[in-house]
Write a structure and sequence with these properties.
141 residues, mainly alpha
Length: 141
């Protein structure tokens, strides 16, 4: 506005100097823009806001991915951390009483049970074992 005021003052003051009239101040009170220009400016402003929002969202995604990668590194060093995280998630979901909780069976637990079974074989069922071989009685002849 100030630049427009100065430009208008110069344009109006130049021809009036010859008449002996001096203009002290020119001030623009209101500017009317055509509707097409208003719509164009509104679209540009909306596009700019959307661009900034996308940049902010992308930055947030980048930060979240870095934190998730860091957490994955920590959890890979401590396998129990993954189980604790799973239990925390179960607790959080179980707090909502209106949902059904389906728990996956951890593969690590299966591997643990398999290793334990290989170390300590389960006792055999005596009924399933073949009878011991019998020898004829020894006599003193």
């Amino acid at each position: 506005r100030e630049k427009l005021n100065q430009g208008l003052e110069l344009m109006i003051d130049s021809p009036s100097i010859g008449w002996g009239v001096q203009i002290d101040r020119v001030e623009i009170k209101d500017v009317s823009l055509p509707e097409t220009m208003k719509r164009s400016m509104a679209r540009q402003a909306e596009a700019d806001r959307e661009r900034r929002a996308r940049i902010i969202n992308a930055d947030a995604e980048l930060q979240a991915s870095k934190k998730l990668a860091e957490a994955a590194g920590v959890m890979s060093e401590q396998p129990a951390a993954l189980q604790l995280r799973l239990l925390q998630t179960v607790v959080a979901v179980a707090a909502e009483k209106n949902s059904t909780l389906v728990l996956p069976f951890p593969v690590e637990l299966l591997r643990f049970l398999e290793r334990a079974q290989n170390q300590y074989p389960a006792p055999q069922d005596p009924a399933a074992q073949p009878p011991p071989a019998t020898r004829p009685p020894v006599t003193d002849e």
